[in-house]
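seq:
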Amino acid sequence: MSFAHRIAAGLAALLLACPGVAYATTLAEDAETNLGVAYDRSDAYELSDDQAFDVDGSEVSAYSLDGFVRSTTIKPLDLSEEMRYFCKYESLQNYDQGLSYGDGYHAMGYYQFDNRYGLGDFLKAVYNYNPSKYRALKQIGDWYGWDTTGDNGSVTNVKSPGGDWTMADDLNWSWHQAYAADSTEFSRLQNFWAYSQYYEPASNWLYSKYGIDLDNYPDCARGMVWGMCNLFGSGGWRRWANDADLYQGMTGTQFVSSLANALVAGIENGTYSYTYGTSYVNRYKSELKDCLGYLGTSVSSLAAANKLAIPDGTYTIRLGSARGMALDVSYGSAADGANVWAYEANGSDAQLWEVTNDADGYITLRNVGSGKVLDVSSALRRNGVNVQQWTGNGSDAQKWVAVKQSDGNVVLFSKLGQGLVLDMVAGGTLNGTNADIYAANGTNAQRFYFRSAAGDEALKHEADLPDGTYSFSSALSFTKVLDVSGASGADGANVQLYSTNGTSAQSWRVTHDVDGYVILSNVGSGKVLDVANGGASSGANVWQYGSNGTDAQRWIAIKNDDGSYTFKSALNGAYVLDISGASMADGANLQLWESNGSAAQRFYATDVSSSSVVDAYAKRNAGVLSDGTYSLVTSLDRSKALDVQWGSKADAANVWLYAKNGSNAQTWRVSHDSEGYVTLANVGSGKVLDVSGGVAENGRNVQQYASNDTKAQKWIAVQENGGVAFHSALDPSYVLDIAAASTADGTNVQLYQANGSKAQLFKL
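struct:
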């Protein structure tokens, strides 16, 4: 026997003893028992020729990294067990494994570097890293020019240029010699090469595509991605990874479940066609189980970690994809097996669910209307199984884990396991959309919002006050608005009532949180309307404070019939935003007070982002007076009316108070323009009510003048305290006023700052 043949015989013995046929066969038997399929790889986990292309049709390039031929570019790399765990399906977790039976004698080592895709590049890089230590690899370069792409269908089909060895023999001999030269380093070099070719391309793609930083995930999640890229190539895996519903901010559990389940589902429904599809399905079901084990996310541990996420109580369960829809028992049925679906929220008992927590962290959801329990049909563990109601029996099919997400939504995991969660079929949001279970994928179809009675009220009124920027005037007087004292930017700065001045301290940005509550942020300070010290009681002060998400900063904005708003505190719906003592004085305090429906608890919202405050005020009050002819009688004395002095028809003729006589000089024609402003034209003269000089100030004379469409001739008629006040379009804080509140004939009519007195109110 020649020396070469003696080496070959020894090598054969080595293959039988360690990584070769016998060992692989033994593992194949174990795998068949555990996974339900034969382990014989036979390229089951490698790309076929038509699959070895990137999504754009170009060849996958990760297998030929020319830069790695320099000794300075390759280095050892230590990895955790979790980062390498997927290799139990690839290489028997053996760094010394030569060309393996399971892959048709094409792949070698822990990561199954394939001779068809770049094994030669790796061997060349290792040799150049340390030519002395890894001199055995030189024959691959000398005899084959580092080209190992020949078909090794058997170990006897290729002869080397120098003798009767096959390429397979040469690869095996040189590989084992390299491992023997420094097993620790050679193993770590394999780690680094695989990391560079499989992990880094996948990591870079995930970041560029989804903003997902893979390095922030647990090792087992990173290892799963690495293994998938190893299996399908850096480009090939993207085709189905694109279907995995990945998104930035996923938990580790969501991430690995989405990846594994996407591939399994795609093969099972025919989206992806692979020769060894069944083998893939079984592999990734097993791999997901392994990874969830590493994550410590068994259903039991998940339940323990999320105990009391939803306290015992009665809730409506709103859809994450449409908060106006609720989980509902079809037709309010009380029968076992009645379907559970989505339906427009209506407050019925069929949409009320009683949450009960057990000692292990699981919850039971009992429908208030039927008394039956949310149940997975026949306790089946697969995608698409129907969810129904059934008599409570304490089975796993009736137990759920509520996992609360950072945005307030809840994902309901079934105790049946396998990452299955409550799901709305196809993400539907229409009446009758069915509920089922499906592998967790992070979509809104699997997100639900548990709403208590208070939360339901917030959602019910969510649309009453749209998001936007507003000033809020008191129903007692338009000229007084919510204001931050001194335009302060400090936490604890008081919120008060103050004359409108158009500053940012009087502008409030309205937003809604996921529960439908209103958040009021001051534009000037950026701080939020807040109940001091978070206590709900009559007289509790209201101030501004940095946003903290507490109920002290959440309000329910309820639109009243008159267009005003009442702001209920989320701390206690019995208490509302209130003006202390119903005062109209500048600096009047804002507080909480028990709801009483008074004007001191009602506020008008004026959108200051799209139109002027004054224009919006005019439009809001356009319906107070109808167009027509009127006698304007003072509330001071109903026998006295607005009159043009001596019935004059001249420009600048004075307007005064005079005994009611029914003449045309006391008759006024009311008309509205397109913006809602009122013009008062005297029937006797044809001239209109006008502010002298077009200046708004105390004591400014009011006269008649030819119509010129200026704001000096425009008024806003507002219903106040049983009468009508006429606010000037020049400045609505000024109104038509009887001088000194006198009722004597000839008393002058003027402008004066609004004070709500009878001297400023008229009967028509």
